[in-house]
Amino acid sequence: MGILSTSLGIGATFGGLYALRRWRENQWESCKTNRRLDGQVAIITGATSGLGKVLAEDLVNRGAAVVLACRNTTAAKEVAAKIKQQCPEALLDVVELDLSSLESVRKCANILLERYPQINILINNAGVSIPPKMGIKTVEGYEINFGVNHLGHFLLTNLLVDRLIASTPSRIVIVSSKLHEQGSMDWEGFEGTKEFEGGKRGPNAAYCSSKLANVYFGIKLAEKLESRGVSVYTVCPGWNYTKLFRYSSVPFYSWIAIIPIAFWFMKPARIGVQTLIHCAVSEDTENETGLFYRDCKVYQSQANLNTKTINELWELSCKLCKIEW
Ligand SMILES: NC(=O)c1ccc[n+]([C@@H]2O[C@H](COP(=O)([O-])OP(=O)(O)OC[C@H]3O[C@@H](n4cnc5c(N)ncnc54)[C@H](OP(=O)(O)O)[C@@H]3O)[C@@H](O)[C@H]2O)c1
């Protein structure tokens, strides 16, 4: 009797939690468009896991030819093979891209320009969140979060932008985060000439600042591409169960607080990706550019979007990538 009632109690608790979670998941926004992308070419950076992987599946199912631009090409080929199992007519390609090396970015762009006379959608999705105290730098010696999340994508976009302009109407989606509101421009920290101010502003300071750089890039890029037929969207996917925070160490006791918060606020990637789809595909966003999106809606950033700082970041990025733009 005791075992039976305990088992029933445990079953009812887990069943209730499951139902509550399903209800919660249904509250989050989803992109409703059924739009097809037949004949279009989409490039997604970082599609071996998390949001990029789910987005690749979605765009392939809409008929787009999707290029997985990834650092781990073995993992990317496995992702492509799995998608092909479910969708045998899928058009998929894998191209090596290590955003922490500007040489790799250039090689990737050359391959893409050779293979694809048309590029309609570029999703700057790949990202890392690495505490600055780990002291990891890019191949060229720049701070790793800034280098991968912003600078590598800045160069990739520059190298592909003429092809996107020639393929209009086209779209560029920059995956940022609401955490950009906690970021700041630590110029010397970015360049790697001084340690990033992580100690003072928490272990995610460099990540938040790289995501602010994403927002500044989106604003300036939209301005540069105005009237050229290329729309630019900056996106926060919300808080998702992915591998992003794999380098963050959380003390054991903190899990007691984190688990209930995660239960209520963390999304599976298939839900987090909805705002990316809204910006990459939907008819609703077709005539918009230069805005920030969250939960499939425009979101007003609370960050200081100062024009002078936006221009300074653009100039620094050109200098570090050795380009004029
Ligand atoms: N998850 C969240 O809660 C959350 C919240 C806000 C914003 N975001 C943003 O969402 C985007 C996608 O992240 P995710 O959550 O899906 O994380 P994820 O599962 O860790 O995926 C990140 C992807 O980026 C790739 N990547 C990492 N370093 C790279 C490099 N040097 N060159 C090329 N690719 C590299 C990873 O490839 P490997 O397999 O080779 O590592 C992986 O495919 C990121 O920009 C992130 O900042 C996520």
UniProtKB/TrEMBL annotation:
Keywords: Oxidoreductase. The keyword Oxidoreductase applies. It comes from the Eukaryota. Gene3D superfamilies: NAD(P)-binding Rossmann-like Domain (3.40.50.720). InterPro entries: NAD(P)-bd_dom_sf, SDR_fam. The keyword Oxidoreductase applies. This is Retinol dehydrogenase. It comes from Daphnia magna.
